[in-house]
Amino acid sequence: MDYRLNMNRLNQLFSRKKNNLLSIYYTAGYPELNTTLDIAEALEKAGADFLEIGFPYSDPVADGPTIQHSSEKALENGMTLSRLFEQLADLRKRVSIPILLMGYANPMIQYGVERFCKKAADVGVDGVIVPDLPMYEYETLYADYFKANNLSNIFLVTPQTSEERIRKIDELTNSFIYLLSSSSITGGNLNVSVNIEDYYKRVKAMELKNPAIIGFGITDSKSFSKACEYAAGAIVGSAFVKLLGTEEYLEKIPGFVQSIRP
Amino acid sequence: MKYGVNEQGYYGDFGGAYIPEMLYPNVEELRQQYLPIINSDGFKLEFEQLLKDYVGRPSPLYYAKRYSEKYGANIFFKREDLNHTGSHKINNAIGQILLAKRLGKKRIIAETGAGQHGVATATVCALMGIECVVYMGEIDMARQAPNVARMKMLGAKVVPATSGSKTLKDATNEALRDWIGNPVDTHYIIGSVVGPYPYPDMVARFQSIISLETKRQLLEQTGKELPEYALACVGGGSNAMGMFYHFLDDESVKLIAVEAAGKGVDSGHSAATTFLGREGVLHGSRTILMQTDDGQVVEPYSVSAGLDYPGIGPQHAHLYKINRAQYVNATDDEALQAGLLCCQLEGIIPAIETSHALAHLEKMKFNSDDNVVICISGRGDKDLDTYIKYFGY
After folding, report:
1. How far is CA B282 from CA A101, A212, B171, B202, in A?
2. What is d(CA A106, CA B236) in angstroms, rounded to the nearest whole number?
C-alpha cells in the first residue's frame, strides 16, 4: 500500500482545525522511565491537540537548562530509542492524537534512519523533528525513508531565516512549519517586541501552504494566545517539563492544559 | 587539493553542517564570506604581519640532536611552543579575529579545554579591543587554573560549563548555545578543526602555516623539503592538521597522529577516538566519535585537557578512513615520561598534549637518514602542576 496517498493524522488535524492548536513537548523517560504513554494519555484527555515526545541526547545544544536536565535524567533512567519504541508499541491503543518524535541526529543515525522511520510508522508516529538534521542531508540521504513511511519531517524557522529559505522549507514540508519565537535555546521567555510581531506578520503574509505553529517561550495563556494571533497554534515545552519535575505530575496535567488554553 | 573539502563541506563521508536552524544564518554567512575574505590582499597582509611581529613567526624548526641520536633518525621539532601565548592556537585566533572584524562582529565567544585556545582568543580580543567570553569545563578550570587567571587578566569573561562531563565537549555545547542566543553581533572562534563546515577548513587553513614553514625550513636545513614522517598529537586535531596540510598531497610523507589513550584504550578511561569511536554526528559535523550503541556521546578521559575530547575533526576522520594518515595513541604514563625525557634531553618542557606525540617515537623504527618532523604544539608551563605531582619533584 502506498502510504503517500493517505493523509496522516497531522494532515487530518490541520485540515479540521485551523487555529488555537495546542501542542505539548515532553522528554521520554523523565521523570520516570515508564510513564511515557501515561503522560500522552493524560495530555490527550486534557485537550492537547498533538504531542512531541523527545528522545533524549547527551549533548542537546539547542536546549536550555530545563530540557537539558530532563534529558540527563531520562538517560540516567535508562531511556534509549529502542526502549522508547517498545513503550510506544501500545501507542495507538491508548492515544489517538498526532504524535511527533523530537530529538537530535546522532541517536537516530546510530539507530539507522531507515529502521527509525519504519519503526516510527509501525507504532503510529506521524512526524519527526530533528533540529540538527540539515535540509541538504535530509534531501540527499533520508527524505525517501520519511516519504516511504508517511512521516512528516518538520523544519524550524527563526526570525533570521530568509524568505527564500522559508519558501524552500514550505515546499519540503507536508504538515506544519515550526516557527521559533526568537533565536534562542528552549526555555527562554517570549518577549513579543515590535520586531517579533513584524516577523510573524512577514511569515503570515507569505501565505505558505503549510500552517505555522509557534514554539519556544510559550509558558502561559498570555503567550499562547499572543502566538495564536499569528499562527495556527503553539507548542509548550520547558514549562510542561518543569511541571513533570513536581510531585503527582499526572494529576496536575488537566489543570496545566487549562492554564495555557482556558 | 586531493584531500580538501568539497562544495557541500564534506571530506569523503565526513563533515557537513549538522546545526539547528538557529545557527544557520551565522554559519551560512561564514560559508559565503570566509574564502573571499581570507584570500583578499588586505587580509593576507594584516594576517602575515601579525604572525610575524606579534606571534613571532616563523617558529623555529629545531634539529633535536640528542633526540636524533637516541632514536637513530634526524628529528626536527617545529617549535609552536615558542609562539606568543605558548602554543599553535594563536595562529587560528589571529586569523579568526581578523575575519570577525571584517564581518562587523562586536563580540567573540570561544570554548577551551586546556585553556590554550581560550588564552589565544582572549589575547587577540585584547589586541583588537573586542569583548570576549570563554566557556571552559568546570573540571578543566580546576586543572588549568593558571590559564583561567591569564584569560581574566587579558580581560575575558570565563564562564564555567557545568553540564555533562564538565570538560571540553560541554564547553563547546555552551558556546554553541551562546551563539544561538546571539546570532547577529557575535562570532564564535572555534579552536580546532571541528564544528560545522566551514570551520574545519577555515581553521586548517589558518594552521597550515605550520607545514608551510616546515617545508621551507627543511629544504634550507637538509636540502629536501619533504620529510619521511610528520607527527603531531590529536584531540580535535588542529595542530596535526596544520602540520599535515602541505604534506597531504605528497604521498611519500607518512603522517602520524597520536591520540590520548588515557589510562589505556581498554580501561574505560580514554580519549582514543579512532580506536574507540564510530561514525556519527558531533558538534555540527559528521565524524568519528566515542559513543554508546544508543548514540549518546561517551565522556572521554585524558590527563591532558587539550586532548580530552570524544571526537576528531572530519578531515581527520576522512584521512583515517582512507588510510592517508595513521592514527595511534599514547597513554598518560607514556606521555608524561616522554615529556620528562624532552626536558632532560633537549631542555624543552612540552605541553602534556605535545608529549603524546613525543611518546610515539618510542614505538617507531627509523632508517638513519629518515627526516622526522614533530609538532611541538605547546609549552608545558601550564602543566607544571601535573608533571610535578606525577614525578614528585
Report:
1. 20, 30, 13, 18
2. 18
How big is the A-B interface in CB pairs under 8 Å? 108
Residue B183: its chain A contacts at CB < 8 A?
Answer: 158, 160, 183
Please, what are the domains in chain A? 3-260 (3.20.20.70)
Which residues of chain B make contact with A84, given a CB cutoff of 8 A?
A: none
Sign of CA dihedral B127, B133, B139, B141: positive
Spatial separation of the C-alpha atoms in residues B202 and B181, rounded to whole Å: 23
CB-based burial, B355-393: b 16+ in 10 Å, e otherwise: bbbbbbbeebebeeebbbbbbbbbbbebbeebbeebeee
Tell me how far apart the alpha carbons of residues A98 and A14 are, in angstroms, rounded to a whole number. Answer: 10
Note the CATH number of domain B58-87+207-391: 3.40.50.1100
φ, ψ (nearest 5 deg) of residue A191 = -100, 95
- Taken in order B5, B8, B14, B20, is the CA torsion positive or negative? positive
* Number of CB atoms found within 10 A of residue B145's CB: 13
For residue B269, the distance in angstroms to the closest alpha carbon of chain A comes to 18
Active site residue A63: yes
Q: Which positions in chain B have a beta carbon within 8 angstroms of at least one beta carbon in chain A?
A: 8, 16-22, 24-25, 163-164, 169-170, 173, 176-177, 180-181, 183-184, 278, 280-284, 289, 291, 293-297
| Cell numbers given for B355 | 608529549
Out of A62, A81, A184, closest to residue B294 by CB: A81
Which chain B residue has the Cα nearest residue A61? Answer: B173
Same fold, B21-50+89-203 and B58-87+207-391: yes
Listing DSSP states for B51-68 in one string gives: IIIII-PSPPEEE-HHHH
What pTM did the predictor assign?
0.96
Q: Write the DSSP symbol of residue B76.
A: E
CA distance B313 to B295: 18
Element (DSSP H or E) covering residue B372: strand B371-376
In this structure, what C-alpha cell is assigned to residue A129?
Answer: 523533528
Residue listed under C-alpha cell 500552517: A211
> Quick check: B271 and B309 in contact, CB under 8 A?
yes
pLDDT in tens, chain B (393 residues): 789 999 999 999 999 999 999 999 999 999 999 999 999 999 999 999 999 999 999 999 999 999 999 999 999 999 999 999 999 999 999 999 999 999 999 999 999 988 999 999 999 999 999 999 999 999 889 888 889 999 999 999 999 999 888 888 899 999 999 999 898 899 999 999 999 999 999 999 999 999 999 999 999 999 999 999 999 999 999 999 999 999 999 999 999 999 999 999 999 999 999 999 999 999 999 999 999 999 999 999 999 988 999 999 999 999 999 999 999 999 999 999 999 999 999 999 999 999 999 999 999 999 999 999 999 999 999 899 999 999 998
- Spatial CB neighbours of A191, under 8 Å, sequence gap ≥ 6: A182, A217
d(CA B290, nearest CA chain A) in Å:
12
Q: ipTM of this model?
A: 0.93
Domain edges within chain B:
21-50+89-203, 58-87+207-391
Topology annotation, domain B21-50+89-203 = Rossmann fold (3.40.50)
Backbone phi, then psi, for B2, in 5-degree steps?
-60, -40
CA distance B137 to chain A (A): 14
Q: What is the largest CA-CA distance in chain A?
A: 49
